[in-house]
Amino acid sequence: xxxxxxxxxxxxxxxxxxxxxxxxxxxxxxxxxxxxxxxxxxxxxxxxxxxxxxxxxxxxxxxxxxxxxxxxxxxx
Length: 76
Known about the structure:
The chain is of the alpha+beta class. 30% of the residues lie in helices and 36% in strands. The protein has a single domain (3-72), classed as TusA-like domain (Translation Initiation Factor IF3), CATH 3.30.110.
């Protein structure tokens, strides 16, 4: 298990989800991916992508305009 980070700040929909999908494809089950973004739509889009692709949301934190979404990569 390892922790990875994806900087998706200043990217607009659908790019945070696309970059999350690309990065997740490089990871192994049990890894954690922290997506840092500024697009408020990502709060809904990334969890929806996780439900479709069998991954889990660990945590969502928002401080001012920055959003940090932690995703547990699971078997698909």
